[in-house]
Amino acid sequence: MPKGSCLCGKLTYEYSGEPVKTVLCHCLQCRKLTSSAFTTNLLIPRENIKIEGSPKHYEFIQETGDKFTTSFCGECATLIGKETDAESFKPFLILEAGTLDEGFEQTKPDSEIFVKHRTPWLEEMKGLAQFETKP
Ligand SMILES: [Zn+2]
Ligand SMILES: [Zn+2]
Q: Coiled-coil ranges per the record (predicted)?
């Protein structure tokens, strides 16, 4: 089973099965949350993932008006994932792929979302579905 953890190791997780989707997100909230140009998100059915430890949570309203709740480590601040009631993401924990302990290189994105915010020094990735905002 794929496993992952925060930087300090106080939060760990594992999930069964394959991610339903792998989505690169260019939204401004993901940029702030991770201080990076985009996030790499694995959509894992909530019942397939188990998080060990005591994540802290932060709620924010995404630019589409959808409410998101993040899970992160209170010690090292690593963002593990987020959840939302937005229709296309509701059944999933949206896992930050960069927290995988192994297998990150094998994650294959299938779409890019919020490409209207993609920074000009990044090109569209060939073969990936493109969405101006959310799918
Ligand atoms: Zn930590
Ligand atoms: Zn985003």
A: none
Distance of CA 51 to the CA centre of its chain: 15
**Number of other CB atoms surrounding residue 35 within 10 Å:** 7
Domains located in the chain, CATH noted: 3-130 (3.90.1590.10)
User: Could you say which ligand is closest to the alpha carbon of residue 62?
Assistant: 2
Please list the rounded mean pLDDT of every run of 10 residues in the chain (135 residues): 97 97 97 96 97 98 95 98 92 98 94 98 97 94
135 alpha carbon to ligand 1 midpoint, in Å? 31
User: Which ligand minimizes its atom distance to the CA of 54?
Assistant: 1
Q: 76 C-alpha to center of ligand 1: Å?
A: 4
CA end-to-end span of the chain: 28
Helices (H), 15-77: 28-34
Q: In whole angstroms, what is the distance from residue 97 CA to residue 86 CA?
A: 20
What is the tally of helices (H) and strands (E) in the chain? 1, 11
